[in-house]
Every structure is written in structure tokens, then in C-alpha cells.
Design goal:
about 210 residues, alpha+beta, about 30% strand, 12 strands, 3-stranded antiparallel β-sheet, about 15% helix
Length: about 210
Amino acid sequence: AAPPEVTAMPRQLSFGTNAEGRWFAKYADEPFIYRVPAEVINEIPRDSARWKSLHPARFTQFALKQIAISLGTQPPVVLDYDPTLATWAGSVAGRSITELIDRVKADAMAGKIGGLEVQDWLQDRTNAAKALVTPAITVRITLLVDPLQPQGKTRTIEYNFSPTQPGADTPIYYGRINAEPDVFIIMRDQLRLMLASVLKAGVQTEK
């Protein structure tokens, strides 16, 4: 039989120095104190961005209620998902596009957004912050707090994306989540694939 799966639990590790400048470390759930070489301390990234996961916000389709995608100032494409019936409905500027939605494509989009993996987090955010003042693309996701209560409370995740050069379709895009100060980068081709049209083949609609 296969061994039981072990789930890693987060642990808090604290560092400190003594009067001689020697470094020590201690896990919050252990009584032991460890001596740590100064070289190890120097290798620990000081910027919080270096500790962030490359998956900014994972979610499953069971918790999904809505995806709204806006390009610049255009009206958003709103895709509503019913997790109980596993069905999609959609609208643009109040006009229904439900009959035009390809369910397989919509499911694929939800999976890609829910499992989004970014390239890296930036340490120098100066240019990115300026570019994201007016996002080129905004993706707003509404999720159920408790997937077992379809009519219960919801929470919102918002992604903003902008090219690295204003007005250009650059190979790399800046991105952020929920207007947080930390900024990540994502490849344009990955972004295009993630936000590919969910309409049935041969169908076009004005945004």
C-alpha cells in the first residue's frame, strides 16, 4: 500500500543575535535554539516579494461565481457560473451572450485563472506601479467563501495587467493582485492563452 500523504504545515522561525553579534534561530514550536552562521543570514532575501508564491491566488471552480474581464475602458465581459448546475451565463454591456458561450472554453479559462502561475515578483516596482495606474486588462473574480453554500457570502479577487511600455503589446506584462504594492511579471502569450475567447467557434461579439 502507498504511504500516507504528508501535508507540510507552516512553521515560524525567528532569528536573533547576542551581544557578540552571533546569530541564533528558534522554531516557535520547539524549545531548542540553533547557532546560525552569519553567511546564511546574508543569503536570506530581505525583500518580501522574494518570499511570495508564484501562484498569487489559487481557487477551484467549485467556489467560482463570476469572472469579469475588462480591456481598458471597454465594458466588461461578465461570465456568471452556477457551481450547483455547472452552467455558464454571460453578458456584455447588459446584452446576453449566454447562448454564444462554449462551456468547455469557459471551464478552461476558469481553470487557468484559478491556477495562474506568474513568472516572478519584481523588487524594483517603480515603472510597474506607473504602468498599472491605468490597467490595460482587469480581471475580477467573485468566489464563494464557503463552496457548500452557493447563496452564501462571497469575496473578490482582482488582477490588473499592463504592458511594460505604454500603448505597446510587449512580450512581458506587469501584473498585480487586489491593488497590492507588490508587482509580478507574466508573459504576454500566457496571458492571451488564459483569457482566450470563450465563445463558440466562428462567433464574434462586440465588446
